[in-house]
Design the sequence.
C-alpha cells in the first residue's frame, strides 16, 4: 500500500485514532508491536487555531513513531484549513479528517459524523484541507448517518475526487454508534468499485489475527485498522503482523506478560505526563490489560481508586502473586 510517497507493507495494520487512548505513551507500545501507521487522537480544529494547550499537546510527535498522522475534526471550513496549517508545523506525515465521530457533543456542533448529512460541506472542507497542505490528506468515516442513508459508496468517490489519498471506513452508521456488529460488505463494495483507486482501509471489530486475515481476504481491503481490541493489548499488532507474514498464530500473552506490559505502560505515562495525569489516564487501559482474566473485578475497582505509582505497582504485584499461587 502507498499513501502519497509513503510506502507500507502489503497489508498494513493501522492503529485507530482513539480519544484519550492513542497518546504518545500508548503509541510507543503499538509501534514496538509493529503498527505500520498510527494516528493521534482527534484534535479540535477550533482548539488548534487558538493554540489551546490541550490541543497543542496532542501535536507532539516523535521521529520514532513515523509514519504518523494527525487527525483533526471541526465544522468550519476556515478553521479546518487554519488547523491544518498549525498541525503541519509539527511535521506529521499525514493529515486525517474525522468524518466519523458519533458523539453527540461533536455531532451537534456539525463536526465528525455530522458531515455525513451534509456531503457538499464535507467535500468543500476536504478540498480546502487538501489545498492547505503539501502532505497527504486521508479521511476516516462511517457507512452513513443511519440505516436509511448508507451513502459511503458515493461519499468515497467524492472524497477521492476532492483529493484524499486514502480512506478508512468503520463499518457502522452514526446511529449505530458502537452497537451491533460492523458490516464490512459496503467496505468491500467501495474497495471493488472500479472508480476507486486510493487505498481503502477497513475498520470495525478486528479483535484477532484470524479475524484480520478473514476480513482482508473476504473484502480485499488495502489495510486493516484496529481500535478497541488493542487497548490494553498492543501485542495484537505483533499477532496480526506475524499471521500476515507467516500464516501461523503466535501464542497470546500470559497474564504475567500482560502485567509487565501494563506496568511498563504506566511508567511510560508517568514519565511523559507526570504521576497524577499518568495514573489517571492509565485507568482507561486496565480493563483491556485484564480482559478475560477471571476474578479481576475487585482488583480493577481497586486500581481505579489508587493515585500513586507505588500503590499501583504493589497491586499489580499482588495480582501476579495471587495468580501464580493459583496456577
Ligand atoms: C474510546 C474511543 C475513542 C475513539 N476516538 C476516536 C477518535 O478520536 N477519532 C476517530 O476517528 N475515531 C475514534 N474512535 C473510533 C475508532 O477509531 C474506531 O473507528 C472504532 O472503535 C471501531 O474500531 P474497533 O472495532 O477496532 O474498535 C474512538 C473509539 C473509542 C472506543
Sequence:
Amino acid at each position: 500500500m502507498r499513501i502519497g510517497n509513503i510506502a507500507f507493507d502489503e497489508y498494513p495494520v493501522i492503529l485507530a485514532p482513539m480519544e484519550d487512548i492513542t497518546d504518545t505513551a500508548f503509541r510507543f507500545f503499538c509501534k514496538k508491536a509493529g503498527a505500520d501507521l498510527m494516528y493521534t487522537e482527534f484534535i479540535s480544529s477550533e482548539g488548534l487555531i487558538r493554540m489551546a494547550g490541550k490541543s497543542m499537546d496532542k501535536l507532539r510527535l516523535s521521529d520514532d513513531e513515523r509514519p504518523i498522522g494527525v487527525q483533526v475534526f471541526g465544522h468550519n471550513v476556515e478553521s479546518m484549513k487554519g488547523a491544518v496549517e498549525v498541525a503541519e508545523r509539527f511535521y506529521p506525515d499525514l493529515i486525517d479528517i474525522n468524518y466519523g465521530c458519533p458523539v453527540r457533543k461533536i455531532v451537534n456542533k456539525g463536526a465528525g459524523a455530522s458531515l455525513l448529512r451534509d456531503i457538499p460541506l464535507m467535500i468543500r472542507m476536504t478540498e480546502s484541507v487538501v489545498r492547505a497542505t503539501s502532505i497527504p490528506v486521508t479521511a476516516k468515516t462511517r457507512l452513513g448517518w443511519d440505516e436509511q442513508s448508507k451513502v459511503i459508496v458515493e461519499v468515497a468517490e467524492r472524497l477521492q475526487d476532492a483529493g484524499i489519498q486514502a480512506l478508512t471506513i468503520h463499518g457502522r452508521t452514526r446511529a449505530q454508534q458502537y452497537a451491533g456488529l460492523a458490516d464490512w460488505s459496503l467496505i468491500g463494495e467501495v474497495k471493488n468499485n472500479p472508480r476507486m483507486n486510493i487505498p481503502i482501509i477497513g475498520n470495525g471489530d478486528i479483535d484477532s489475527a484470524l479475524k484480520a486475515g478473514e476480513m482482508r481476504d473476504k473484502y480485499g481491503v488495502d489495510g486493516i485498522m484496529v481500535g478497541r481490541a488493542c487497548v490494553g493489548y498492543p501485542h495484537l499488532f505483533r499477532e496480526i503482523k506475524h499471521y500476515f507474514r507467516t500464516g501461523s498464530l503466535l501464542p497470546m500473552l500470559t497474564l504475567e506478560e500482560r502485567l509487565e506490559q501494563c506496568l511498563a505502560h504506566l511508567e511510560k505515562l508517568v514519565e511523559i505526563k507526570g504521576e497524577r495525569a499518568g495514573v489517571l489516564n492509565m485507568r482507561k487501559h486496565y480493563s483491556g490489560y485484564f480482559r478475560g482474566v477471571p476474578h479481576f473485578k475487585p482488583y480493577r475497582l481497586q486500581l481505579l481508586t489508587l493515585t500513586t505509582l507505588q500503590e499501583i505497582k504493589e497491586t499489580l504485584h499482588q495480582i501476579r502473586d495471587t495468580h501464580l499461587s493459583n496456577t
Summary: The longest helix spans residues 255-273. The chain has 15 helices and eleven strands. Residues 16-19, 21, 41-42, 71, 98, 100-101, 140, 170, 203-206, 226-229 surround flavin mononucleotide (CB under 6 Å).
